[in-house]
TrEMBL record:
<protein>
    <recommendedName>
        <fullName>AAA+ ATPase domain-containing protein</fullName>
    </recommendedName>
</protein>
<dbReference type="GO" id="GO:0005524">
    <property type="term" value="F:ATP binding"/>
</dbReference>
<dbReference type="Pfam" id="PF19568">
    <property type="entry name" value="Spore_III_AA"/>
</dbReference>
<feature type="compositionally biased region" description="Low complexity">
    <location>
        <begin position="21"/>
        <end position="30"/>
    </location>
</feature>
<dbReference type="InterPro" id="IPR027417">
    <property type="entry name" value="P-loop_NTPase"/>
</dbReference>
<keyword id="KW-0547">Nucleotide-binding</keyword>
<keyword id="KW-0067">ATP-binding</keyword>
<dbReference type="InterPro" id="IPR003593">
    <property type="entry name" value="AAA+_ATPase"/>
</dbReference>
<feature type="region of interest" description="Disordered">
    <location>
        <begin position="13"/>
        <end position="35"/>
    </location>
</feature>
<feature type="domain" description="AAA+ ATPase">
    <location>
        <begin position="168"/>
        <end position="324"/>
    </location>
</feature>
<dbReference type="InterPro" id="IPR045735">
    <property type="entry name" value="Spore_III_AA_AAA+_ATPase"/>
</dbReference>
Length: 340
């Protein structure tokens, strides 16, 4: 966690069972039911979406083999690629598990697509009433040749490590590579801000990942409101629309990735609205070197120092300095799912 110029490290490890500066956590108690799961750990309740809705789109034999897996509660995603064996991937595992020896056929993909429905402009679709996400791989002609069926989870108590930062009212950016749980954190933060801190929260949900698919948002976001985005390229416009039309105190946006979205974030922050967002990257240095997104942390510019100043600093005359105040004063690096 980087707080302006000060640095503070927060971590929570399932392996060590400790949070930095905190008491040891009790071992989680797991349920063996595949429909739903509730995990209680150290007084916190973690609720996961059941697999029943997701496995219904899979071929019958693949579904049966998946439910026999001992680690099904830690399922990350199921990959269906034409001409290859279906594969299940689990949290913390380097390699996947083959779910059947027969290859995926065109009939398997067509049946799965019929169960899912239409994909959006970003080649993503959801299952109504759940947080699961299905992404498509297409040929140059637009024919689907692969599906990634990713499990979506709602986790209560996941933001306990940084709950105190929500009281500051400062904008927070979560930085991490794909798969470390950034979107899961966004859901829990939305719920905490709306239900516990009683803020007016609006979520700009480009791919319906935060609030789930369908017209009614998933209960995981609490009383926060959700605005859907017709096309991914319009995310920055919907962000501005949210501020102008709905008077939010907090705007939550996932996957800030373009210059237009970075500029929209700065515009919103200058209007006194708190932002909570995510971006891809492993460390703050990655963001600074990203010419498209570096404005989120103030940007950088080259300046030339005078002889006396350079001598006093003990540096060369040409140095890099922050160009402007950061859009996000607080930045949290999510190294792993339980290590921030």
């Amino acid at each position: 966690l980087h707080l302006n110029t000060a640095a503070r490290a927060l971590s929570y490890s399932n392996t060590q069972g400790k949070r930095a500066g905190g008491a040891p956590a009790r071992a989680p108690a797991r349920s063996d039911q595949s429909n739903s799961q509730v995990i209680q750990c150290g007084g916190r309740i973690r609720v996961e979406d059941g697999l029943s809705a997701l496995v219904q789109i899979l071929p019958k034999d693949v579904c049966e083999n998946l439910l026999k897996q001992p680690k099904r509660d830690e399922l990350l995603e199921v990959v269906l690629d034409l001409g290859r064996c279906p594969e299940a991937r689990f949290l913390g595992e380097d390699s996947g598990v083959i779910l059947r020896t027969e290859e995926i056929t065109r009939r398997d993909l067509d049946a799965a697509q019929a169960s899912i429905g239409e994909f959006g402009g970003d080649n993503r679709a959801g299952i109504e009433g759940t947080l699961h996400r299905i992404s498509a791989i297409r040929t140059r002609k637009g024919v689907i040749v692969g599906l990634t069926c990713r499990v979506g989870r709602a986790v209560n108590g996941h933001v306990d490590m940084v709950r105190d930062l929500l009281f500051y009212g400062e904008s927070i950016l979560f930085l991490g590579r794909p798969g470390v749980g950034k979107t899961t954190v966004m859901r829990e933060i939305a719920r905490v801000l709306a239900d516990e801190l009683h803020k007016r929260v609006v979520i700009v949900d480009t791919s319906n990942e935060i609030g789930g698919d369908g017209d009614i948002p998933h209960p995981a976001i609490g009383s926060a409101r959700r605005m859907q985005v017709p096309e991914p390229c319009l995310q920055h416009k919907v962000m501005i629309e949210a501020v102008e039309n709905h008077m939010p105190e907090v705007v939550i946006v996932d996957e800030i990735g373009t210059e237009a979205e970075a500029l929209a974030c700065r515009t919103i922050a200058e209007r006194g609205v708190m932002l909570v967002g995510t971006a891809h990257g492993e460390r703050l240095a990655n963001l600074i070197k990203n010419s498209t997104l570096c404005d989120l942390v103030g940007g950088v510019q080259s300046v030339t120092l005078g002889d006396d100043e350079a001598r006093a600093r003990g540096t060369q005359k040409s140095v890099l300095e922050r160009k402007a105040p950061p859009t996000f004063p607080l930045l949290i690096e999510m190294r792993e799912q339980h290590y921030w």
